[in-house]
Amino acid sequence: MPRPAIDLFKKTFGTTPRAAASAPGRVNLIGEHTDYNGGPVLPIAIAQRTTVAVGPGAPGDASVLEAVSTQFSGVARVKWQEELPKGWVAYVGGVLRELWSLEAVPFDGSVRIAVASDVPIGAGLSSSAALAVATAKALAPSLNPRQIAGVAFRAEHDHVGVRCGVMDQTIAALGKRDHALLFECASLEATQIPFDARLLLVDTGKRHDLSAGGLNQRRAECEEAVKRLKVELPELLWLASWPAEWLPRLKRALREPLRARAVHVVSETARTRFAAQLLQQRRLKQFGKLLYESHESCRRLYDCSSPELDTVVAAAKRAGALGARLTGAGWGGAAIVLVNKTDKKTIPAIQRAYERAYGRSAPITEVKPSAGAHTERV
After folding, report:
1. How far is Cα 177 from Cα 372, in angstroms, rounded to an integer?
2. Residue 217: predicted pLDDT
3. Residue range of the domain that includes 149
4. Are residues 204 and 154 in the same domain?
5. What is the chain's alpha carbon radius of gyration, rounded to the nearest angstrom?
């Protein structure tokens, strides 16, 4: 869907953009909060995309960023080297700073950017990474996918201040149609795994803001757990590297809430690698059981679920769905539900339960693995 961004650029700035690119949102099948702990994740890119159209700024406007979006009113205008704006434009400014450090944009370059997206904001589908990756791809199309992912990650982590892992940016850049990506966040090893299953996405309507609170707190707790566990295992670098067979030793070494956070990460690491094996073997029933286990661990140990997400997962389980869990860090956002291709019970069951609990419906769509970032024709 490149036209809305291109048309917005022309309407706002009165000229044709020089380039455009798009990047997808993502759904993480399993591997929640393992990415910034050095563990594996198993995401897919989805069909919803963010498109960014770019062009040079007005003559004489040194280092000025002008940005406009179909989702927000007004045109933001900032000196991107001097200040980082608030809100969505901060991600664009962060990308510009990172590309400038790589000499991929001029030192005094002025830029105009128009954004259009159908990736819901705050729904746990990584709208921020889609924006950052699409911006980097549009501004520096010669960079390879790994480089694009790195630029986008540093923009969000170092400049915006979201203490995320590299999963979202990586799947947005490397996604492949009809495949999930097993990505080891410590070694950066990536394996494409065929994914042919019916997957539902349930948007709870409860939005979350990962730059404000929960995610940063959990990351700090995990870092503190590593610090204390180094007494037991001095060479430990990542929480996900703690051996699963040493969980009793871990529990003795840590107090709550660090104990619960660490048990989730170590268990989720093992679950994710096993889930990838099951997916390769097309053992969807067993794969689905791991989704339920993952959600329960997120709910009980990592304390990152929400009543809305729990309602969806419980209703899916009662209806006989193969598996269900929160996705996108939690604290609101969306849940995924794995069902048989002939299933007709799960969607109405979830809708009934959600309307009974909250007096409104929860949008449900089917999602399929889609392609990663690419340039668009202007």
Report:
1. 8
2. 93
3. 3-27+45-172
4. no
5. 21
Looking at residue 88, what is its pLDDT?
93
Letter string b/e over residues 180-210, b meaning 16 or more CB atoms within 10 A of that residue's CB: bbbbbbeeeeeeebebebbbbbbbbbbebeb
Length of the chain: 378
| 142-148 LR contacts (CB < 8 Å, sep 24+) | 142/104, 143/102, 143/104, 145/173, 145/174, 145/372, 145/373, 146/173, 146/174, 146/188, 147/102, 148/173, 148/373
Tokens of 259: 């104990």
**pLDDT tens digits for range 1-55:** 568 999 999 999 999 999 999 999 999 999 999 999 999 999 999 999 999 999 9
Judged against a pLDDT cut of 90, whether residue 194 lies above it is answered with: yes
Residue 107 belongs to a domain with what CATH number? 3.30.230.10
Is 350 part of a structural domain of the chain? yes
Q: What is the pLDDT of residues 31-44, one digit of tens each?
A: 999 999 999 999 99
C-alpha 267/C-alpha 250 separation (Å) is 12
Q: Are 153 and 164 in contact (CB under 8 A)?
A: yes
- Residue 120, pLDDT score: 85
Distance from chain centroid for Cα 122: 10
The predicted model scores a pTM of 0.91
- Nearest of 179, 187, 170 to residue 29 by alpha carbon: 179
CA distance 73 to 222: 38
Tokens at residue 318, please? 């009662």
Specify whether 168 is catalytic. yes
Confidence of residue 294 (pLDDT cuts 50, 70, 90): very high
Calculate the alpha carbon distances from 158 to 154, 162, 163, 272, 358 in Å. Answer: 5, 8, 8, 27, 38
- Residue 107 phi/psi, 5-degree rounding, is -60, -45
> Taking residues 190-204, what's their average pLDDT?
96
**DSSP code for 183:** E
Examine the fold and report which residue of 136, 152, 172 is the final residue of a domain before the chain moves on.
Answer: 172
When divided into structural domains, the chain yields a total of 2
- The catalytic residue among 168, 196, 209, 310 is 168
Same domain, 209 and 313: yes
My answer on whether 287 and 328 are in the same domain is yes
